[in-house]
């Protein structure tokens, strides 16, 4: 298979050189070891732990308890509430990101003086660290010193001094949604923009000659051609929304009360606060994983369907 | 159908002048071909007529009426693009019906059905009507896009190298169909191509473009038999025309570096002293009692004909004989050149009339 192997065995000098295959292994092995140690082992070990009773700060060895953790979790109305909050958060933020991202992409599609610069500027939020974003938006939302309510009052004087955001159980989730949308709309826009730029001009020219309306051009040409990329953006954002943790932690810590307690935030609490219920947290993590996989599957199926037609 | 006139069209793209003072007239019912190499301005001319590009100077008139201010939709044209510009999410039927369904036309659905069915039959795509366009082959796609053009009666058909993305066999069969459709419908057609075979076979008249200028306009026979310059002579005809240089003496033209001498034509005394001869390969014929001697350098058998490369002195002339030739490489041959079929070009490459 590798002729170099044979030639290298003929002379002593060449034997000291590495064959192609050894070089391949040399490059792959470190990554394989890291993957096994930090991804594959934890994945299976946590699966094992989810069927036991175990705390990482305790001294006792894991005790096998079967499905007890899962049944406790699935019968806990509190957990269901966190799932509902997560779902609402995911739906609102991904929905808004999709609409705004697509709209921005449509605007930036036409090249104008400075459009490259504006695109770059719009992309900046998604390059920032979510925790940092969480902290500075916390200041922005501050009812007395924050710029958010100041701006609201400026454009809408009747509402001054403006509502409290992060301290209000009804508005805190919206505040987190606003920040998530601010941060991740650029990502959706970027994917849509590349989809839009790939649409050949002659399709629009043919439509113009055939006397098609602008409405038709949008529904029959633009949207179907961008749809596959748009769906990939939505898939990525939905998965991320279900895992949202750092942004919420930085802004509200899950509060006030449990109004922004997303599943991932609660998972963190179970695992690393109080009694460190490691096995219980593992079980919850596996439930989240199954849900994310189910959602992704539905998306990917639809994506393939759209691709098949387009 | 309409009479379309381009009058001194000039079009500039940034640093490139795509068209310079281009003028030609497409008569009602005519199959007019724009022929030229890449970058000659063929597609730009087409797009100016369609209204997809706005010319910098000059006017386009349809039946004597200037259409420069009109949008592509208002010009009532049909355009077949080089890339099959089908609407990707729609069925073949809906693609064909699409131009008829425009709110500006309001064709009743029953008539749409009749016309789509008739068009599909004409192009032999009836069995594809329910298919989504993404599932079609290249040939089928181009048939559908031609169908979308002929389903209505536009004032002119504009076709931008519609066959160049197809393989050779398909190109040939679709070319014949196109010609048949055009002749039966008497539709005014402007067809752009860089393929001289397509131009010669399809055209009623050809305009040859080079670097944004019209070089020659004429029937296929005019273009082939009376090329206006060396460029046109080389552009049409396969294998390429022989273009040896020659010097004029008082009695004859002597081909440089060889023994070949051709008699001066009647007005030959007025020729410049040095001249380029144009000799079509079919006018160079081996004959046992031929006037000139040479040696066979290379043989290209094509089945229906054979191309012989005959070296005579320093010149190599291509000769085309019908059928498979029995000649061998290295063999000495004698050959004749038909003197009445020669072309003469001056130092600037322009045709010298006889």
Uncertain spans of chain B: none
Shape of chain A: globular
- The portion of residues assigned to helices of chain B is 10-25%
Radius of gyration of chain A: 26 Å
Q: In percent terms, what proportion of residues of chain B is strand? A: 25-35%
Query: Major β-sheet of chain A, in short?
Result: 2 strands, antiparallel
Q: Give the largest interface.
A: A-B, 18 and 25 residues
- As residue ranges, the low-confidence spans of chain A are 1-9
Q: Tally the structural domains of chain A.
A: 2
Structural class of chain A: mainly alpha
Major beta sheet of chain B, specifics? 6 strands, mixed
Q: How would you classify the quaternary structure?
A: heterodimer
DSSP helix fraction of chain A? over 70%
- Tell me how many strands of chain A there are: 2
What top-tier CATH class of the largest domain in chain B fits best? Alpha Beta
Write the CATH architecture name of the largest domain in chain B: 3-Layer(aba) Sandwich
In angstroms, what separates the terminal alpha carbons of chain B?
Answer: 39 Å
- Based on helices, strands and strand pairing, what is the structural class of chain B? alpha+beta
- Rounded average pLDDT of chain B: 89
Task: Characterise this structure.
The complex is a heterodimer of chains A (310) and B (354). Helices cover 72% and strands 1% of the residues of chain A. Chain A is mainly alpha-helical. Chain A has 2 domains: 3-49, no CATH class; 68-309, MetI-like (MetI-like fold), CATH 1.10.3720. Chain A has a two-stranded antiparallel ribbon. The model of chain A is unreliable at 1-9 (pLDDT under 50). Chain B has 2 domains: 4-227, P-loop containing nucleotide triphosphate hydrolases (Rossmann fold), CATH 3.40.50; 245-345, OB fold (Dihydrolipoamide Acetyltransferase, E2P). In chain B, strand 17 (305-312) and strand 18 form a beta hairpin. Chain B is elongated, with a radius of gyration of 24 Å. The two termini of chain B are 39 Å apart. The relative contact order of chain B is 0.12. Classes of the chains: A mainly alpha (310), B alpha+beta (354). The A-B interface holds A 200, 202-203, 205-213, 220-221, 224-225, 309-310 and B 50, 52, 71-73, 77-79, 81, 83, 85, 87-90, 98-99, 102-105, 132, 134, 145, 148.
